[in-house]
Every structure is written in structure tokens, then in C-alpha cells.
Q: What sequence folds into this?
């Protein structure tokens, strides 16, 4: 009885979470523009979407910014985490305190504060300001996932490598790096998804005429939803699902080999 | 630590980020505070911050707090049993099932909100289905209920994840020990499980309450233009009215709420720490 | 001393189709210190959890004080458990931890205060009332876990590998501590461990388990000196286990040489296993020994030397305070009462047991 009730509860929550998404996917194949009537199956909205230059450029902008922001924030975040062990505890806690600010603060405040900065510096809003903003809010996520790894490092292994004749750089890449790689990878993944998903900070730092997927959708929605957006949602959902399946399958397959 | 030749070397490696954090985190925040406490002539003033007490603004703030609190509560009520069920499964594929519940988090935030526009509209999907079955239709689009629904839908995973993690960390033998010492199911829950999961609950509350309190996209999309939240007002000051001083002043008010939230959490943390 | 307090009757339990306990029956006397001893996965912890009420057996009954408690919830049982890794409530002070069971039973405050003081005194941790569990060492946390259990005045205390996480010195101290506690409280202890030394030091009664079966039970002396099968002999201490032939009563042929022994009733010319403890092997000059061989290995162990002696195709393990250098030719002599004869496993089940050794 208890088991049945918990099953029902899980199913209700899952329906709440997924039914809306599946509705969108169904509507993306509806040839009628109306949400209320099924006008027959069509792939027309997908074709329209793919030939839409605004969507294409927004997609390219989003991906470029996400990739670049991930690379920069991962490098800066990782090196800072490693350097932290050599710093005094006081300086370390100051750095961590400042790093926590963008994570705790509301996105809207982070967004307008950066906007004020960029205006003050007379940086023209667009690609570069969004990239700077994204690197800024991504670094804390990278540090958050690398830091625990760094704290648990076993430095005797590094010293053993030096003792066995390795130079510091070689010892570092052979002993320290492998231990923190998992943290770096998950930090990078987190940064990438945060970047892809961000709307609010991008919205305040983008300026006019430059759109990412998020800001494009926001503009479209204000003008009234076009079925092409449904097609876009369906594609994004399927891509996210596929990426997650790959990420989750990979470690499982490895452990099976063992 | 032998990794660095000196503190200086470590400082050198950390310096790019220290500079970055100063320019892109500390300075911008100082600018918000500067703008918030000055008028357009650069004179010091409390007016911008005090504007929050004016009727229209105050009403938006109260409504924002109200809706954020309701959303947080609903998320909590939905998430806690879910976290208990998931943590109780203790399966190897557990992680897989948990992922199912937080997967929508990776879907674009605006698209998640957009789905509810489509569903709730006057001639939207839900009403079409209701009409088909000759049931009374609903009209909650452009009402506070729709906004709450949008918030809950968007932020639910942020509540599920920390609560699940906290519950999952509790050693099964700690629960067994409570039973062993005579506690019944309810006593075990109230005295052991609930207090031990409190850190997870608190971080879940923060992760739902702050974005819900400060959102402007959800209220724009699901609340129409009639229901203004404090986020909408700040957004308008910056993007339409170009009154950066007032916008910054109101942002300071938001930051005060965030600060209160932080202090509450810090008090809880230090309480645990002091006894330790 | 001889009244049955807990009886397990034909208990079986399996997880995911794997049999953990198979038709296990066991009686535990009131006021005894009983140890369930065996390698990991032998079913000892499962047995303890069934007594504690955290697992339900698939078959069989648990009888406590003449009452069937098989389906009774753990919070209704008159026994308390000290868990592996202590399972203290980390969000409560030491005093709150100890008071937990008493508060549930709505005992008056003054009673609870006295009990806390008494329990902390009993485990030598007076003044720790307001500390948090995380600030204590492993050994101290262990004592608190015991204090938390005993304030409820259980008739039986279940201890699940309580010393497993402690270092050697602490473990030895706690062994004496537990023995003293047992004496002071006058209640039954059921103790689970994989450490044979712990079992021999503390118990009145040892139950040796392997693969869900009880291999042998009895006093520590009996288990050590008269193991009933090769598994028990090998698990309890070091031993030389050799396949031999029982020529007739009181005479056994080991590795081609005839040894006098004290056992009777195994028949004539029957295959048997013999167990000879390493400290019972006497090294003498080659012509004095029943068989002779060469010392091939030598290790100094503090109280004695450990030597390997190659003789008649078997490598004998020998403990002696007298040193014989590697390469020395020596004779081997064993007093008749130091030779323990065991039946060779007959059934397939028993075979399986001895194969895992």
C-alpha cells in the first residue's frame, strides 16, 4: 500500500514536470497555428526554424559565448584553486568570500552591476560584454567543484614524484592533475550549462541588436509565440536529453569493463 | 606545502583572478551602491532607497515577497516527500531516477516558462482539453496564481536536489539507533531526520526564494503587464526609464533581503559550530 | 547463568536470492558474553540485526524471554544496540544523545540528569555533557554510543563490531573496558566481530560462523583447543592442518610417521584432519624427533620466534622461544594431547565450507 502511494506520488510529480514539455513537442508538429486545434502533422515549423537567420545567429552566439566562457573560467578557476593552498588562510577566506558573491546574489543585481560597470568603462555592449559577464559568473561554479578536490590532494605523492627525479612540471601533470581532473570536468560542464541557460545577466549586458537564444525567445514571447519556438524547444529538449544520457552512460560503461 | 616555492609564487598564480574578481565583482557592486545613494547630480541621498516605501513600489515589494514565500513553501511541500522517497530507494540506479527529477533544470529557463503560457492561455491547451470534456474552463493566466505556478515549475529542482542530498547523507544506522532507543516512526522523523536534513532545507529555501523574489521574466510572461513585481520595476528603471539611481536604490533593497537570508543561514551554521 | 534469554529458531534470510542465513538455531543464556565470530559475509551481522529487529527473517522465530518477538518493531524490544561506526546523533550534544531514549520514555528530568552522570562516569567521560560528537575521538564516541545504549537498562546489549574503527592500542583498552562494563551491569552482551583475538579475550561463549552456518560454539578454550573442523582451526589462530590417517584409537599416521594421540572412536585406517598449534610443535635434535626436517624460514616476533620447517613434504609452522637458525636440521615432536583429530568433511556442504578456508 505504502509502495503504491509512493509510486503514485513520483508519477504525479513526473507528469507535472514533463507533461508541459511534451505538449510543446506535440504542438511543434501541429500544422494549425492555433494551440487549441490539431490541424494535422507537419514538419513545416522545423523547416521554417532552420531557415531562420535570426535563430541561426542567436544559436551561434549562444554556443560561442558558452564555449569561450567555459574555457576561460575553467582555466582561471582551476589555477586559482591550486594557488589557494599556497596562500595565507586570511587571504584565502577573502577570495572565497568575494567568489561567493555572484552565487548568492540575485542575478538581476549581478546583471545591472555589470551593466553599470560596462557603461562606466564605455565598453560597447554586445559579444565582448556578455563574454566578460559569463566568465565572471562561471568562475565560482568551477572553483566550487575544483576546490574540494584540491583540498583532498595527497601532496606526498607529488613529493614522491619529485623524490624519484621528476621535475615539478612533470610531477604536477602526473600526480596533481589526474586527481583534480574530475572536478575540473564537472566544473566545466556546470559552467557550460549555466552559460547556455543564462537569461537575466545576458539581458542586461547584451545591448541592442545582439541576441542569444534566451534573449531571442524573450523578445519573441513578448511579440506573441510563434510555432517555430515550439520546434526550437523540442530540439533543445532532445539535445539536452541526449547529452545527459551520454554523460550518465559513459561512467557506467567504464565500471562495467572493470 | 611544497607545491609552491613561496607564498609569493602562489599569490602570483592567484593574482589574475584576484584582479578579475576585484574589477568584475567588487567594483560593480560598489557602483550599484554609489548610484543607489546619489542623485543625478552626484549628491548623496537616501531618496532612491526610500522610494521603496512609496505606495506603488511598496505594493510590488510586498507582492514579490508574498509570491516568493508561497512558491518556496509549495516547492518545499512537494520536494520533501519526494526527497524521502528517493533517498529511501537506496538503489544503484538511484542517481538515474534522481536525474529524471532535475533534468528539466537543463532546459532553457524561458522555454520552461513559455510552456505554461501555452498551457494556461484563455484558448490554451488546458482549456481546450477542459472544453472537450465539457468541464468549466479556468482563467488563471495573468494572475498571481499563474506566476506562482511558473515559479514552482522553474525552481522545483533547486529544492529537490539539496533536500535529497541531505536526506541521502543520513547514515541508515543513525535512524536505526533512534528506533533502537525506543523512538517510533514519528519521533524518529521529528527528532532525527528533520533536524539532520535542515541544512539541505535551508539551502533549498535560499535557492528558490532569491530567484523567485527577484524574477521579472516569469511575471512578464505569466502575469501579463498588470502584475508588477519588484524585479519588473528594477528592470524598467534600467531598460526603459534609464533612471539608474532609482534602479540601483531598489536593488540595494533587494540586496538587504539577500543579506538577511545569508545572516539567517550563518546564524544556523555558527550555532552548530559553537556547540562543536 | 543457565537460563535461555534469547532463542533463534530455524532462522533463514536471503537478499536478492542470495542465502545469508540457512536454518540457523542458537540459544543465548542470560547474563553471558556471547560473541558471533566469523569472516565478513558469514551472516553474523545479519543475525545481530534480526535480534535487534532491523531485519525480518524469511523463516524462523526469535524468542525473547519466552515471548515471540519476530515481528516486534525495534523500538518495542528490551534490548539496545551499539552500532558499527557508533551512529551518534551529530546534531545533539553528548548529554542529549544519552538522554534520547529516556526522553522518549518520558522519564523525569532529575532522573535523566542522574542517569547521564552515571553513564558518563561508567564510561570514564565525566564532564563531556555539552560537547558535540564530532569533537570526540573515535574511542570516546564509542564510549558515548555504549553509554547511550545502557542508560535504558536493556536486558541485552548488542554490539556490532564496535571496535572495528579503532587503532590497536585503543582496541585493547576497550576490550578490558567492555569486560568490566559487562561485569558491572550484569546483563547479556551479544558481540559481533571478525577478530578472533577480541573474541577469545572477552567472551564466555563463542559462536563461530561461516557462510550462514554455525561451525562450532563453545567456550573460548574449547574453540581454541578443540576445533571441530578445519575452518574453525584455521580461523582461530595459526595452525598446522594436515590430512592424516587414523590407524586405530590413539594412534595417527601423519606424513608417513606414526604419532601417539589421545582421540578415540574414529575407526581404523580412516582419513582424518589433524590440527597442531604452532606453539605445540617441539623442535628437538633430528634423531629425537618423530620426523625430521630443515628450518627454511625465521622471523622474530617479540615473545617468540616463528619458524618454518620443511619436513616430509609439509611446511610446518612453529612458534618457539628457542631459536633455530635457517638451515638447521631439526626433529619434530608433538605431545599426544596436543594433536587434535577432526573428521574429514563428508557432505558436499561441509566440503564447500572447508574449500573457502
A:
Amino acid at each position: 500500500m505504502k509502495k503504491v502511494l509512493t509510486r503514485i506520488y513520483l508519477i504525479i510529480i513526473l507528469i507535472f514536470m514533463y507533461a508541459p514539455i511534451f505538449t510543446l513537442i506535440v504542438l511543434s508538429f501541429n500544422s494549425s497555428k492555433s494551440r487549441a486545434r490539431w490541424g494535422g502533422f507537419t514538419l513545416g515549423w522545423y523547416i521554417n526554424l532552420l531557415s531562420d537567420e535570426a535563430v541561426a545567429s542567436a544559436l551561434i552566439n549562444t554556443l560561442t559565448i558558452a564555449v569561450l566562457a567555459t574555457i576561460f573560467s575553467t582555466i582561471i578557476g582551476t589555477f586559482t584553486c591550486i594557488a589557494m593552498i599556497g596562500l595565507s588562510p586570511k587571504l584565502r577566506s577573502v577570495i572565497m568570500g568575494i567568489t561567493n558573491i555572484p552565487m548568492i546574489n540575485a542575478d538581476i543585481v549581478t546583471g545591472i552591476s555589470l551593466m553599470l560597470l560596462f557603461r562606466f568603462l564605455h565598453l560597447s555592449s554586445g559579444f565582448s560584454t556578455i563574454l566578460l559577464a559569463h566568465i565572471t559568473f562561471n568562475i565560482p561554479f568551477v572553483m566550487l567543484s575544483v576546490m574540494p578536490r584540491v583540498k583532498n590532494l595527497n601532496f606526498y605523492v607529488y613529493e614522491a614524484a619529485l623524490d624519484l627525479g621528476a621535475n615539478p612540471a612533470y610531477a604536477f601533470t602526473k600526480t596533481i592533475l589526474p586527481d583534480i581532473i574530475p572536478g575540473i570536468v564537472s566544473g566545466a560542464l556546470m559552467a557550460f550549462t549555466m552559460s547556455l541557460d543564462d537569461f537575466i545577466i545576458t539581458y542586461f549586458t547584451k545591448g541592442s541588436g545582439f541576441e542569444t537564444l534566451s534573449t531571442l525567445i524573450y523578445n519573441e514571447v513578448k511579440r506573441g509565440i510563434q510555432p517555430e519556438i515550439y520546434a526550437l524547444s523540442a530540439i533543445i529538449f532532445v539535445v539536452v536529453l541526449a547529452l545527459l544520457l551520454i554523460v550518465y552512460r559513459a561512467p557506467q560503461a567504464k565500471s562495467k569493463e572493470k | 606545502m611544497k607545491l609552491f616555492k613561496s607564498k609569493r609564487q602562489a599569490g602570483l598564480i592567484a593574482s589574475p583572478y584576484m584582479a578579475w574578481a576585484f574589477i568584475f565583482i567588487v567594483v560593480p557592486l560598489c557602483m550599484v551602491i554609489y548610484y543607489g545613494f546619489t542623485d543625478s547630480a552626484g549628491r548623496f541621498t537616501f531618496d532612491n532607497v526610500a522610494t521603496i516605501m512609496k505606495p506603488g513600489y511598496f505594493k510590488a515589494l510586498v507582492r514579490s515577497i508574498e509570491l516568493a514565500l508561497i512558491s518556496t513553501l509549495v516547492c518545499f511541500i512537494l520536494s520533501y516527500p519526494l526527497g524521502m522517497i528517493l533517498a529511501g530507494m537506496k538503489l544503484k540506479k538511484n542517481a538515474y531516477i534522481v536525474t529524471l527529477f532535475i533534468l528539466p533544470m537543463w532546459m532553457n529557463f524561458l522555454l520552461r516558462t513559455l510552456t505554461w503560457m501555452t498551457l494556461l492561455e484563455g484558448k490554451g491547451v488546458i482549456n481546450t482539453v477542459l472544453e472537450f470534456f465539457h468541464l468549466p474552463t479556468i482563467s488563471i493566466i495573468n494572475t498571481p496564481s499563474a506566476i506562482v505556478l511558473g515559479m514552482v515549475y522553474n525552481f522545483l529542482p533547486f529544492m529537490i536536489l539539496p533536500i535529497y542530498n541531505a536526506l541521502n547523507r543520513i547514515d541508515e544506522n543513525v535512524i536505526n539507533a533512534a528506533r533502537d532507543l525506543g523512538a517510533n516512526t514519528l519521533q524518529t522523523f521529528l527528532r532525527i531526520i528533520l533536524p539532520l536534513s535542515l541544512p539541505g532545507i535551508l539551502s533549498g529555501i535560499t535557492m528558490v526564494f532569491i530567484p523567485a523574489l527577484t524574477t521579472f521574466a516569469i511575471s512578464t510572461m505569466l502575469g501579463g503587464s498588470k502584475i508588477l513585481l519588484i524585479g519588473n520595476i528594477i528592470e524598467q528603471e534600467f531598460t526603459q526609464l534609464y533612471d539608474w539611481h532609482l534602479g540601483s536604490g531598489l536593488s540595494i533593497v533587494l540586496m538587504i533581503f539577500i543579506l538577511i537570508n545569508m545572516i539567517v543561514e550563518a546564524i544556523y551554521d555558527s550555532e552548530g559550530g559553537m556547540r562543536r | 547463568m543457565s537460563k535461555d534469554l534469547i532463542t533463534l529458531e530455524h532462522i533463514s534470510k536471503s537478499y536478492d536470492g542470495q542465502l545469508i542465513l540457512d536454518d540457523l538455531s542458537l540459544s543465548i543464556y542470560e547474563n553471558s558474553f556471547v560473541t558471533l565470530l566469523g569472516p565478513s559475509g558469514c551472516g553474523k551481522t545479519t543475525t545481530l540485526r534480526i535480534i535487534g529487529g532491523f531485519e525480518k527473517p524469511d523463516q524462523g522465530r526469535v524468542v525473547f524471554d519466552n515471548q515471540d518477538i519476530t515481528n516486534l518493531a525495534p523500538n518495542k524490544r528490551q534490548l539496545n544496540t551499539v552500532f558499527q561506526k557508533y551512529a551518534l546523533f551529530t546534531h545533539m550534544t553528548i548529554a542529549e544523545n544519552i538522554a534520547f531514549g529516556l526522553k522518549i520514555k518520558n522519564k523525569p528530568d532529575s532522573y535523566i540528569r542522574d542517569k547521564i552522570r552515571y553513564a558518563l562516569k561508567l564510561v570514564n567521560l565525566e564532564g563531556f555533557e555539552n560537547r558535540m560528537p564530532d569533537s570526540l575521538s573515535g574511542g570516546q564516541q564509542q564510549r558515548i554510543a555504549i553509554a547511550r545504549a545502557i542508560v535504558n537498562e536493556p536486558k541485552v546489549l548488542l554490539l556490532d563490531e564496535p571496535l572495528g574503527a579503532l587503532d590497536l592500542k585503543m582496541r585493547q583498552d576497550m576490550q578490558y573496558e567492555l569486560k568490566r562494563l559487562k561485569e558491572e551491569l550484569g546483563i547479556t552482551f551479544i558481540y559481533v566481530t571478525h577478530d578472533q583475538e577480541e573474541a577469545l579475550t572477552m567472551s564466555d561463549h563463542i559462536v563461530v560462523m561461516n557462510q550462514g552456518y554455525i561451525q562450532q560454539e563453545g567456550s573460548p578454550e574449547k574453540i581454541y583447543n578443540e576445533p571441530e573442523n578445519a575452518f574453525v582451526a584455521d580461523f582461530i589462530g595459526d595452525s598446522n592442518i594436515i590430512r592424516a590417517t587414523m590407524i586405530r584409537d590413539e594412534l595417527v599416521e601423519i606424513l608417513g610417521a606414526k604419532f601417539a594421540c589421545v582421540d578415540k572412536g574414529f575407526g581404523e585406517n580412516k582419513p582424518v584432519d589433524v590440527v597442531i598449534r604452532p606453539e605445540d610443535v617441539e623442535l628437538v635434535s633430528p634423531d629425537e624427533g618423530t620426523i625430521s626436517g630443515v628450518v627454511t624460514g625465521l622471523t622474530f616476533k617479540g615473545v617468540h620466534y616463528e619458524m618454518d620447517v620443511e619436513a616430509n613434504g609439509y611446511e610446518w609452522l612453529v612458534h618457539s622461544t628457542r631459536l633455530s637458525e635457517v638451515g638447521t636440521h631439526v626433529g619434530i615432536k608433538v605431545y599426544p594431547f596436543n594433536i587434535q583429530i577432526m573428521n574429514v568433511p563428508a557432505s558436499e556442504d561441509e566440503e564447500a565450507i572447508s574449500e573457502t578456508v
Observations:
- Residues 32 and 39 of chain A are 4 Å apart (CA to CA).
- Chain A touches chain B through 82 residues (CB under 8 Å).
